[in-house]
Amino acid sequence: MDATAASERVDSDRDRQRSAAKPASRRSYQVPSVQRAMLILQQLAGHREGRTLGELCRLLGMPKSTAFGILSTLQAGEFIRRDPVSERYRLSYKMLEIGGAYAQSLDLVQEFLAVARDVAAALNESVHLAVLDGRDVLHISEVESNKPVRFTSYTGKRLPATCTALGKVLLAALDDAELEARFGTGPLPRMTEASVRTFAELRDEIQRVRLMGYARDREETFPGVQCVAAPIFGPRGEALAAMSVSTLTSQLDEAKLAQMVMLVRESALQLSRALGYRGGGFASARFGVDANGGLAPGRAL
Q1: Are 220 and 242 within 8 A, CB to CB?
Q2: Is residue 279 a contact partner of residue 237, using CB atoms and an 8 Å limit?
Q3: Per-residue pLDDT tens for 113-167?
Q4: Where is 26: in which H helix or E strand?
Q5: Which residue range(s) make up the domain with 22?
Q6: What is the pTM assigned to this prediction?
Q7: Based on the domain organization, do 205 and 253 belong to the same domain?
Q8: Tell me, what CATH number does 203's domain have?
């Protein structure tokens, strides 16, 4: 019997003894290992940078062998992921992917749809919502244009974060050390000849995104298609997600680009306020948003 199993057996025996000592009406039918897994998930949910094994054990008073066993099980099920560089565990968007009904009930998605319909109507272009998951962006909702020829639906799909406007604007919310941990070693994924080639190029692009307050995709995901994206902030100023508008390069001129940038930034900020954002945090520090939650003037990117 390994250390994890032995620890779980001792804990289980102890809980059965406690339960037997209680009156029948007060017995608990909760499973200790599941309770511990929920505590771990709650810790990871409340800490954007993730937690190491040692931190979780210290915060939860949990034996290392028990915590490691639960983390390994959650990781095998893809409910969490472990960064091999920082050794920190974070939630995975498997938590979001299971159950389409759950995703549709999220305030984020519902608020996005209310805002995005107006953007799509004003521009007659498709509007997308995505979240960052490791080195990818996961598309979780969209509103299509009324054009006879439309883009293929992205909802439920993953794309390399470094290739997309949605991904780059969310990567800009990471600190430099986290950005390097994810992309500093090895080749970057590329979808077209225009995709970012090196980490040095990515780092420079991220600095421009932070300065401008929005990101662009210049045919870096699909030839002939360009996008503009802006971040969506939560109550603490954290970047929860991003929204974008995509259009054909053949239909894009300077006037339309300026309109897209204005509408995407304003709509993303409107959505942020609906989700409880009131200014400050990462937003004011990195995305051209003032301390009161208003947009600072953006410049051409």
Answers
A1: no
A2: yes
A3: 999 999 999 999 999 999 998 899 999 999 988 876 556 667 788 899 999 999 9
A4: none
A5: 3-92
A6: 0.64
A7: yes
A8: 3.30.450.40
